[in-house]
Amino acid sequence: MKHYEVEILDAKTKDKLCFLDKVEPNATIGEIKSMFHKSHPQWYPARQSIRLDPKGKSLKDEDVLQHLPVGTTATFYFRDLGAQISWVTVFLTEYMGPLVLYLMFYFRVPFIYAPKYDFTTSKHWVVHLACMCHSFHFAKRLLETLFVHRFSHGTMPLRNIFKNCTYYWGFAAWMAYYINHPLYTPPIYGEQQIRLALIIFLFCQIGNFSIHIALRNLRPPGSKTRKIPYPTKNPFTWIFLLVSCPNYTYELGAWFGFTLMTQCLPVAFFTLVGFIQMTVWAKGKHRSYLKEFRDYPPLRSPILPFIL
Amino acid sequence: MASSEEDGTVEEKENNNKRRTKSALATAWLTFYNIAMTAGWLVLAIAMMRFYIQKGTRKGLYRSIARTLKFFQTFALVEVGHCAFGIVKTSVIVTGVQVCSRIFMVWFITNSIRQIQNEESVILFLVVWTMTEITRYSYYTFNLLHLLPYFIKWARYNLFIILYPLGVAGELLTIYAALPFVRRSGMYSMRLPNKYNVSFDYYYCLIVFMLSYIPLFPQLFLHMLRQRRRVLHGEVIVEKDD
């Protein structure tokens, strides 16, 4: 069996960082990253970007050495992606915040509102309902992170956790402050509005969960395969006929329901900002589906049927 | 086949021509814009000087130039568009932040809080702004015409070292002077209870705005210093990679 030689150069300075000899032809990039990590312990595999060209795309961990367009002496370029943190850690932290913070405002913990309101409860039943819905939503997200989602990437840059937590925790505190405020005004159209809002909210929560399960089932455990999602027996997944990322569609619907339920402008802002961000993500996902699959259903829109 | 090859090159030529007319149009517009803005700020400078020479006081000076100031400062919003459409090679965010802070000062501070219009700090930032803008717009104009006199280049990349901090001082002092009037009148503010379940306190918003100068001003100032080193001394600055 012919062995390969692998040299790894810095993508920016072109310095020779590592030389590996007697590398098996069927070695994967992942294995090469582990070997590189041994000689440079500060660069654990998750923060290594190995590429064929200094300005090119990162190679995947699963890529096999002998299938790459390299000679028996392979030259790779390395770029440091910076400190990394696992997606699961980020998700758990960013979702735990809203869950805990909202409850602090709900129970009117001291130093938030005037002292005479400490540990009192709101007299409006919609405020209790809103607390249940908000808490359910984030508890669901936490459980999905632990048991449902199958992540393509293991890690993301460390600075993302600060950015993401500021966003989620900040907005949660801002909306919780007003919903649980002693001077909160319930929705104008009263029970009708709240009932409609609750139906929309629950419908979209079930829908969102159904999509997450459907996407999970597309991918066998431990794999990173990508397939076109299709409607299943579950009616909530039939929206796949019209939309590429129905998980975002349902998420938008749920927050729209929550806005209607609480009639609170900060919630409306949060819904709007989330909508913009999810549309950007949906368009990106839709574009990569179209690029990867020739037979991608033409009727589908990224996030809103026929519109967006 | 020979004919399709020709078609290919004809199409290429058409695209190149389109690109050339677009950039000629962009240059023409930018030249006009910068000449107009230089003229506008010159008019402001002259009007301010005339008022002071004739009346001998700063009382009423702001009111006399208010409309011209609002017009030319607001028109500067198009510069964000220039960056967004790529006809000017500057970051949209940097330009956006600078123009927005100017618009905020003009419309939400001096325009709406009459009691501070005669403060010295207002005169301070007005003088700084006129000097900065006349230098900046004339620099752009001469640059586009490829006729840049060295002293304009020198002025643009050196005067800011004094003008920028002075301008910030003028702006901050003005906002600080406005605070008691904002508090008393409760302007632009919304209190609970209301049907939108939100509240907004312009007073605290202004305090946050003033505090935001702390992280933002050094960054903009350092950005100008880097530009200065590059333009005047030909140093190659390597920007931080993200």
Give an overview of the whole structure.
Chain B: It is found in: Endoplasmic reticulum membrane; Membrane. Chain B: The chain crosses the membrane at residues 26-48, 122-139, 159-182, 202-222. Chain B: It is a multi-pass membrane protein. Chain B: Keywords: Endoplasmic reticulum, Fatty acid biosynthesis, Fatty acid metabolism, Lipid biosynthesis, Lipid metabolism, Lyase, Membrane, Transmembrane, Transmembrane helix. The complex is a heterodimer of chains A (308) and B (242). In chain A, 48% of the residues lie in helices and 11% in strands. Chain A contains seven helices and six strands, in the order ββαβββααβαααα. Chain A has helices spanning 29-39, 87-106, 125-147, 159-179, 190-218, 246-262, 265-292, and strands at 4-10, 16-23, 48-51, 73-80, 84-86, 155-157. In chain A, α3 packs parallel to α5 (190-218). The mean pLDDT of chain A is 92. Chain B is mainly α and 242 residues long. Chain B has helices at 2-55, 61-75, 78-84, 92-110, 120-144, 150-158, 160-185, 202-233. The longest helix of chain B is centred in the first third of the chain and has 54 residues, at 2-55. The chains are: A alpha+beta (308), B mainly alpha (242).
Bin the helical content of chain B.
Answer: over 70%
The averaged pLDDT of chain B comes out at: 89
Helix-and-strand structural type of chain A: alpha+beta
The helix/strand order of chain A is EEHEEEHHEHHHH
Beta-strand segment tally of chain B:
0
Cα distance, first to last residue of chain A?
54 Å
Strand content of chain A: 5-15%
DSSP summary, beta strand count of chain A: 6
Termini distance of chain B? 47 Å
| Assembly state of the chains shown | heterodimer
Subcellular location (chain B): Endoplasmic reticulum membrane; Membrane
GO biological process, one term (chain B): sphingolipid biosynthetic process
Main location (chain B): endoplasmic reticulum
GO molecular function (chain B): very-long-chain (3R)-3-hydroxyacyl-CoA dehydratase activity
